[in-house]
Specification:
By secondary structure, this protein is α+β, with helices and mostly antiparallel strands. It is built from 10 helices and 22 strands.
Length: 536
Amino acid sequence: TINFFVGKRQRITDIHYVDSLRGQNLIITELKEKLVDIKVGDWFNYNSLQTSLNNLNSLGTFEFVNIDTSSQFVPITDTTLSFVVTTKYRKQKEWSLGVFLNNTQIDNYLNFGVEGSLIHRNWGGAGQFGNLYTNLKLKDLSRVFAGLNGEWEGQIGFKMSQPLIWSLENMLISGSAGFYYSYSTINQLFNISAWYLPLRLPIKLTNGTYLNQIILDFNFEFQNPVNFLDVVNQIQNNNIDSSFSSENSVRVLQSYALYRTLFYYLNDPGIAFTTANLFGITLIGDSRNHPFSPTSGDFFYGSVDGWNFFLAHPWISGIAKYIRIQTAYSYFDKLADNLLSAFKFKIGAIKVFDTEKAYVPFERQFYAGGANSVRGWSSRELHYSVIEASADTNNKNGYFILPEDYSQLSNILGNAGVLEGSFELRYTLPRPRGVDDLISEQISRIGFVAFVDFGNAFDWFAENKVKSNMKWYEYFTKLAYAAGVGIRYDTPIGPIRADIGFPIYRPNYHLPDYKIWTAKNIFNDVRIHFGIGHAF
């Protein structure tokens, strides 16, 4: 026999708002009412209360938010409830100068930099956010930790957002826009001068469905490889002094097709206001119980982006005429009090419409290998390609280039496809008894990980006219594998981690069989990765 004592249902009869302004602008009550998910006349629901708190805190305007029952304005009875929403405003105009760490959304690359900004929250009375900023950042720290060339980017620009534009049925629609100028380096070789105009419409779904967010993106970009001719001359001069054959010399130059196409497009007669005019749709489903260190739930990310053919006027259509599809899924399951399993799967593909003038922006190409990919290889090192690194350039049975040039191309040119996944067992040390609380707390923050990674990148843009013409099933059978262990120390912004990855198995295009690492080679080729936040 199972007895349930659910208590009496209580209906909400009043919601009152009490603001502690502290000399700041008041957010209009209408906006707060739309963000508060509990409504007058509804039966009380705890999940709606928690959603309301999350929505109000996401504005960034309040230092403190509380929603609680109170008889201060309307009495509470055995069948009715009245609520008071109490908010304490934070300082809305701030200057800041400091260092930052951030991550890219799906690849989870960690960036480090310095930034100065002027921020104004709620400048229009409806939660509007404005930010004038400049920064200098080192991109993808795992590359630096692996001893590879760092990539720098400096930016100056502004961005603004409106937390709620429309409220339609079960959707909360917000918007953001910005403009910034950027000067960046790629593998300390190409210097890219660019401006960007991103427009975004995030749509939050509130009906409890699996998908809880839809994002519409419009991006207008203008990228210019300002030192393209200098780089080409540098390559030619190096080839003259090296043991390169003339055939390989031409192939290396052809492999810079991405920027050669862009350079000649910008120098053709005619008007070109953009080099890329892009549109994208992203679907997100997130049921994780914690954004940084989840112990249960899952996360889904799916997107389609590419050439915005709706705005195809020659002046603004750009040269980036492609479509990119990618999806990622992560699942987390608690096996015991201090043990959980985690799984990730990611797949993506790019289809270029104009193969003669193919151009896909560098940051939208696919790469494999690194701290958040297949950890037995360094960042961007992993390809399944016709072209291989070899000092024996006289070999006529395949396409070979010198190892140093192969590495350089891997850092500049990405791939049109990627497929990868990971499985992790994560163990956190239990809090010891009979130990000082401070020491006990630090011990309980330490964790260990054992992982297996698999994946590869396909259709390398460096292949140009010597593509492998793979069969569809080879994208699943030609995967590399790695395994390893790691250590974690949990912090409020996610764990600080170090991973040791061992390459185990890598398919090779030119051999009838696969290259399989021996025990000796495994330890010779070990990779050590550092990062903040889990690999997924």
